[in-house]
């Protein structure tokens, strides 16, 4: 920032200026103050970062302490580290919950892609008439609060005998993420150059061929980002999971909530569980962080 | 994109093959084909439940009492209720409290996290050592599973005996020679601020990311020109950055509102809506009405009210997105 300022000043020197020496002195003084201010801003930025990250760091640290050290007051930051809480989680059967979460989120993400890729093709590359209306229809469904649909969905799922069934979550998560995916994928497909599509058409490539061999390789980063966003939202979903599953299809967040009923000291194990279930999304989110904002704003912000 | 499409359309309707009318109709269906699976899926899964919600909201239906009439084979209800469930929604003190709590919770979380997010975005818009790392760490609160972060706040931070907040207070007090720091039970004494703080922590990164993208999309030459004209940083921020950011602020606030209104995890986990109904918001109240009171009609009516409220906010959100969207189309 400082560098740009001085540079622009130097190049943009107007004709009448004080003598060079004086100018230099002024500029130097200005640099010193802005450098000091710069350090101040940097320290502030890092201080805020540390404050915001502290709960996460505390969660991870506590998960590595034994229960007795986790529950001291004042906190014992330097206590001995151990992985025994994570061991305990697997002894308590966290694995099926993680597997259910993986099936629900990966399954729904795949289904979303199967539906969203052709749809976004029909909304960008060879658009249907009134395609903007279709886009906004998809978007408007994202704004309907899922809680208002819980009762009818519960009744329908119960009638279909699909309570406590992972397939139910796959379908619901697909409908939850499809608008996001359509909007994101459309914004990526809109960037595919027309010339390439023309060339493919002239070479006689059909719809499927064009998508698989021409569009997808170009839109691959967008596809990856879209998948990660869908994965994040399905993995973290709680409201449908807690109300529509009971034992066999319960996902990771349900395991976490079930923890509280346990007796005695549980803070370290709780932190270990919270860390463990958050890990896949933290990794996915960090990997997709450049595209995160595009997904969160439904493709409106790049 | 507009140019892309118009370039594209004439070439695809090349003047060969069957007569134009049948061809263009077939062409239109060929275009629609890829869209239909997604469209039909979305209509079935999202629209039918809402029609059912509206229908149930007009019924007296408590599943603990014997029903006499079948509702689409999904269950039996007592009688037709007209609009009386809506009367209950607006007069029942619990539901009225839930409406107020929803507004307080949503407005506080969105406004505070947008302001904090704006501050952080401005700090991150400068180059400084480790900026990429700082940004990555700042996103973390948004990525932690919401239920996990609610549990983290409730037990690891707020707990009066061994939570980090009281632990740090105690540590500071002991540093100054006191025997014992103050013991504050945050969740019981200030339930609403406790929930708001946890949600602000979770939503600030969301606001920050959108606003940072807005800041970084500022045209560099305008900022340079302002600097050459010796505008102060404050002047630049007020007269150039803020007007440019306006629509990004709108977008983050509106999208944030639409999402925060739906908050269920944090209430369920941190306070269970209590003490009393001090932190019961509409989603949690609907959940209670449905699965604790078994009043399906009332739950559906409350659901309809939430949808109508959301539509009002969402209309503005759609307008903002639409303006960003068309601007993007124009710029191509």
Short overview:
The complex is a heterodimer of chains A (302) and B (332). Chain A is mainly alpha-helical.
How would you describe this structure to a colleague?
The complex is a heterodimer of chains A (302) and B (332). By secondary structure, chain A is an all-alpha fold. Chain A has a domain at 95-296: MetI-like (MetI-like fold). Chain A is built from 14 helices and no strands. Chain A has helices at 2-11, 20-63, 67-70, 84-91, 95-124, 131-142, 147-159, 166-189, 194-202, 207-236, 239-244, 252-258, 267-287, 289-296. In chain A, helix 5 crosses helix 10. The longest helix of chain A is centred in the N-terminal third of the chain and has 44 residues, at 20-63. Chain A is globular, with a radius of gyration of 27 Å. The model of chain A is unreliable at 1-18 (pLDDT under 50). Chain B has 332 residues and is mainly α. Chain B is 73% helix and 2% strand. Chain B has helices at 2-12, 20-32, 36-56, 84-91, 93-125, 131-143, 146-157, 164-175, 186-189, 191-216, 220-228, 233-260, 265-271, 282-291, 296-331, and strands spanning 59-60, 69-70, 76-77, 79-80. In chain B, helix 10 (191-216) packs across helix 12 (233-260) and helix 12 (233-260) runs antiparallel to helix 15 (296-331). The radius of gyration of chain B is 26 Å and the shape is flat. Chains A and B meet through helix 1, helix 2, helix 5, helix 6 and helix 7 of A and helix 1, helix 2, helix 3, helix 5 and helix 6 of B.
Instruction: State the CATH class of the domain at 95-296 in chain A.
Output: Mainly Alpha
Shape of chain A: globular
> Which stretches of chain A are low in confidence, meaning pLDDT under 50 for 5 or more residues running?
1-18
Shape of chain B: flat
- By helix and strand content of chain A, what is the structural category? mainly alpha
What is the first-to-last residue Cα distance of chain B?
A: 6 Å
Q: What percent of the residues of chain B sit in helical stretches (DSSP H or I)? A: over 70%
CATH superfamily heading of the domain at 95-296 in chain A: MetI-like
Largest sheet of chain A: none
What average pLDDT do the residues of chain A reach? 82
Rg of chain B (CA only): 26 Å
- Oligomeric state of the chains present here: heterodimer
Average of per-residue pLDDT values of chain B: 84
Q: Going across the biggest sheet of chain B, name each strand in turn.
A: 1-4
Largest interface: A-B, 114 and 122 residues
Strand element count of chain A: 0
Report the uncertain regions of chain B.
1-17
Q: How many strand units of chain B? A: 4
CATH architecture of the domain at 95-296 in chain A: Orthogonal Bundle
